[in-house]
Design a protein that fits this description.
This protein is α+β, with helices and mostly antiparallel strands and about 260 residues long. The protein contains 6 helices and 11 strands. The chain has helices at about 10-20, 40-45, 60-70, 85-95, 160-165, 225-230; strands at about 50-55, 75-80, 100-105, 110, 125, 130-135, 140, 185, 200-205, 215-220, 250-255. The structure holds S-adenosylmethionine (SAM).
Length: about 260
């Protein structure tokens, strides 16, 4: 899509023009304000097979709930933080929703003028020579299956990681640190997950981009510990390791019982 009508703006008029160009498409403006909860939009939702959109982040939970209530297939853009919302995390934990292919700068971007200086890992020049600046905190949330989530993440054993890891936090250490207040090891990088560890591991939230449900099982998410609270147990404090700053939010995972 681009500025099809050449009025200097890329907007819904361009989208309409492109849709109308194909005589098989039906196109009509909405009668009301287009709120996704309005009866008019719900009727359209019911008729749809797959919903692809970028919903308002402030209404994300409500939007996702509606998609599930109407049993829809979807591919939507969310903010990485949405994974820490109870409603969304539970769907991911239960394999009712997962991440699509690519996150962060690989799924969104703005074309910027030639005069705009590109700097940092989020800026790039694409195959058309366009200069792209991307936000790094978006992801696709979907319930459409795709091959990537069935590919096992290639990992080294714990002994191999401690000997060869490219991360100074792991290489040449005696062991992976354990949390003082939770029976799990701290794994600060997804590519440093030890393939042979049978217990629970705290890994970065971005692990979910590589999550293969045949390889790993999701136990919980810190600092919310949804599962623990749902079992009626008191919410534990933030994960702690003596002498260190609290780790970032962690997903608690363990090797799947289905060995692959
Ligand atoms: C994250 S933005 C996505 C914008 C869109 N991708 C675009 O490029 O124009 C979310 C959009 O949802 C719209 N929005 C906010 N509340 C809404 C609601 N209750 N129902 C439907 N749309 C809503 C906002 O106006 C905004 O355009």
């Amino acid at each position: 899509m681009h500025d099809i009508d050449g009025d200097g703006e890329f907007d819904l008029k361009d989208v309409a023009k492109q849709l109308k160009a194909n005589k098989h498409n039906e196109w009509a403006p909405l009668e009301k304000n287009g709120d996704f909860r309005s009866p008019e939009c719900v009727e359209l939702l019911k008729k749809s097979d797959i919903v692809i959109t970028n919903p308002p982040f402030s209404l994300f939970r409500e939007y996702v709930k509606q998609l599930f209530d109407y049993d829809k297939k979807f591919l939507i853009i969310g903010n990485i933080n949405c994974l820490t919302y109870r409603e969304i995390f539970q769907k991911v934990k239960k394999n009712k929703a997962w991440l699509g292919n690519g996150m962060g700068r690989w799924i969104s971007g703005f074309i910027v003028p030639k005069s705009y200086e590109l700097y940092g890992s989020e800026a790039r020049i694409d195959k058309n020579g366009d200069r792209i600046v991307a936000t790094n905190n978006c992801l696709w949330l979907t319930n459409l299956d795709h091959g990537r989530r069935h590919q096992p993440l290639p990992l080294m054993t714990m002994a191999e990681n401690l000997k060869y890891s490219k991360h100074k936090e792991i290489k040449d250490k005696k062991e992976y640190p354990k949390y003082d207040n939770y029976d799990a090891i701290e794994v600060p990088f997804t590519d440093a997950i030890p393939s042979d560890y049978k217990g629970v591991m705290g890994v970065p939230i971005t692990f979910l981009d590589k999550y293969n449900p045949e390889q790993f099982e999701i136990i919980d998410i810190n600092p919310h510990f949804f599962t623990i609270v749902e079992k009626g147990l008191p919410k534990p404090p933030q994960l702690k390791i003596a002498g260190r700053n609290d780790p970032y939010a962690r997903i608690l995972i363990k090797k799947s019982r289905k060995i692959i």
